[in-house]
Amino acid sequence: MMRMVRSALALLLAAAVLYGMQHTRPLYSDITSPIVASGGMNKRVEARAFALSLDSARVARVLNVETYGKSKTYTSSGVWVVVEGEAEAKFKTLGLTSGEWLSRSGIRYVLTDRLWATIEMMPGDVYQPGLPRRVLLVFEVPEDAVAGGTVVVAPTKLLPLDDEIRIATTISGKDIEPAIIIRRNEERPPWTVLPQR
Amino acid sequence: MDSSPAKVTSTRRGYWLSMMALVVALPAALAVQTWGSIKDWRSQHLRQPLSASLGQPIDYAGASWTVTRFTRLAGSAGSAVVLAEFEALAADPKALGSVPCEVRLSDGSGREWRPTLFADPVVRKQYPEAEQRSQCGGMAFAATEPGKPARMAASFSIPPAASGLRLSIALYSALPSYLSVSEPRT
């Protein structure tokens, strides 16, 4: 009799353990999520394969892009976030193809695709080990997604367990400029953000 | 319940046989499951260099390869530029045309550079003929007649302080072997 009770208890315990494991099992996307390195503005944040520092994050209602003597105005129902910094590959030549603006509420905004033909942004560049390179990221986001936003950069969004750097900006959301000019340069860095601060 | 000594012995034997089978079956199952990944990892990471020096022909991947130039130049924006020119004499160049080719430059500290898509202006100025050469791979071999060498070039943008440079040329059909040439001492 005691033996049967013991067996039944062992069976119940096993079922409880299995039930618990089933309900606390992490999702595949959690297991394979990127390995994140975090930091703040004006600091070099190091991931395994690359390093990134951001030194400027500005917000404007209108974006003017000047290339080859022509100026084009980009308006938006939201605002433009223009971020500048420096990136460097550590061991191997790589590209940084993914840039996102992560709002405080957790919504992700990818880089704008409205400027591709006019200005060289981060995903179009190649980063060589030992040669830091200036990066430009431009996002078009709703005004309420600006304050406390974080810039998220990764070599790719496709590879599991890849590197990701998150840099928290210090933008309050109140210092929105009426307009910002991005002027294309012939020399490096290939752009200048005006008016200079 | 039958608890005769013979039945107990038989149960124990079954138990230990199962345990021993588990010791064999578990690693075997893991090996079968991961064999493809292990093969992929080996092909990507375990490589055997075929060392050659500048100007010395060496047989590799069905062709005779010669690195004819391996030089360092002062590049723009504080970088250094490494220009490598090499040629491959193959009996059937078209056969090599479909084989992916990987050219890399590495230094003594393990950093690795891929060729730049566009040559630095200093290459265009000092070695204009190098810019006319194809990068390693299909284009170079497709445009070559049998009996004539396919001429190729690669330029790299590196930090000026990088030392102990080695050029590697790998054709996927000849992996894990690859050609390795050290920077000549000046």
Q: Could you say what the CATH architecture of chain A is?
A: Sandwich
The proportion of residues forming helix of chain A, as a percent range, comes to: 10-25%
Mean pLDDT metric of chain B:
88
Biggest sheet details of chain A: 7 strands, mixed
Biggest protein-protein contact in the assembly? A-B, 10 and 16 residues
In short:
The complex is a heterodimer of chains A (197) and B (186). Helices cover 14% and strands 44% of the residues of chain A.
Describe it for me?
The complex is a heterodimer of chains A (197) and B (186). Chain A is built from two helices and 14 strands. Chain A is mainly beta. In chain A, strands 2, 3, 4, 5, 10, 13 and 14 form a seven-stranded mixed beta sheet that branches. In chain A, strands 1-12-11-7-8 form a five-stranded mixed beta sheet, with no helix packed on it. Chain A has a two-stranded antiparallel sheet with strand order 6-9. In chain A, a hairpin with an 8-residue loop joins strand 11 (150-154) and strand 12. Chain A starts with a helix and ends with a strand. Chain B has 186 residues and is α+β, with helices and mostly antiparallel strands. Chain B folds into two domains: 1-46; 48-182, Immunoglobulin-like. In chain B, 33% of the residues lie in helices and 32% in strands. In chain B, the strands form two sheets. In chain B, strands 1-9-8-5-6 form a five-stranded mixed beta sheet, with no helix packed on it. In chain B, strands 2-3-4-7 form a four-stranded antiparallel beta sheet, with no helix packed on it. Chain A binds chain B through residues 90-93, 126, 128-131, 188, and chain B through 76-77, 79, 110-114, 116-117, 156-159, 161-162.
Describe the secondary-structure layout.
The complex is a heterodimer of chains A (197) and B (186).
Chain A (H helix, E strand, L loop, with lengths): L1 H23 L3 H4 L3 E6 L4 E2 L3 E18 L2 E5 L4 E11 L4 E2 L2 E5 L5 E3 L15 E2 L5 E9 L8 E5 L8 E6 L7 E9 L6 E4 L3
Parallel strand pairs in A: 1-12, 3-13
Antiparallel strand pairs in A: 2-3, 3-4, 3-5, 5-10, 6-9, 7-8, 7-11, 11-12, 13-14
Chain B lengths: L4 H41 L2 E5 L5 E3 L2 E12 L5 E11 L2 H5 L3 E6 L5 E2 L7 H6 L1 H5 L5 H5 L7 E9 L7 E6 L5 E6 L4
Parallel strand pairs in B: 1-9
Antiparallel strand pairs in B: 2-3, 3-4, 4-7, 5-6, 5-8, 8-9
